[in-house]
Protein: Chitinase
Amino acid sequence: MKKNIIITLGVVGLGCVFSANTLAGINGNPRQKLCVKLLESPSENLVIETFQSVYDTNNGGTEETLSEDIPIQAGSPAAEYCGHDIIEGKINGDGKMKAEFNVLLNGEGNTIDEFKSESFFNGHGQNNEWDLDEKGQCNGSSQQNPGVYMDATDKNGHSFKDCGSHEIPDENLVKIVFTPNLSSISGPDNPESPDNPNGYEEYDPEAVINETSDYHDGQIVFQPKNTLTYQCKWEEWCNDDPSFYEPGYGLQWQEAWNEYTEPED
Structure:
């Protein structure tokens, strides 16, 4: 049975205003909008409950909040579906932008998956520092499995899709991309890859060589060369030279990975 995969996007515009008169005038002005992107037509009706807030650490706490539902009908085309409203606020230097997603089956309170986290924001200086707290669910390597990543362009003009900390110019947009796990309604089987029925992300040596991989501690990957699964235990080496650290094949792969066996039910 095919899996229905949804990607949830948070689009964030950042502005930073500098005042020469006082330090309190160093402000960031975030603008955030949440969207839902479907990679496949859903087989069930879904409602994505969203919640956002602007939190100013140095000046009064929560400034703005916004709740909005995004309904997705069964059979809807694979496309991007956005909320209508944008949350705006001002952060005096340090703060947080909260984003919460709750995926409901038929909008009846049956939660299929959820993600709740914050992006840490620092508006000091010419560029805003942006750091997504991915809660151990970073999905920056392939963007095709359950997890989350940040999609933006940094101050050097480098486009990235990962979960690291980046300096982002005021005018650039940031997308927070969340892929919920819908296996509870689509079933565990993966007929497109019977050797990888749980749909783990495939280890990609080319991504490692091109420095676009983002494997993290505890992540489980599928090695198509031998149809085995491996769990990353040292993320710096998991993203290092495949000739040394490719799971199952690198000269020192056991320094970076453990062979993984699914626990029995």
The chain has two domains: 6-183, 195-260. Residues 205-209 form the longest helix (5 residues).
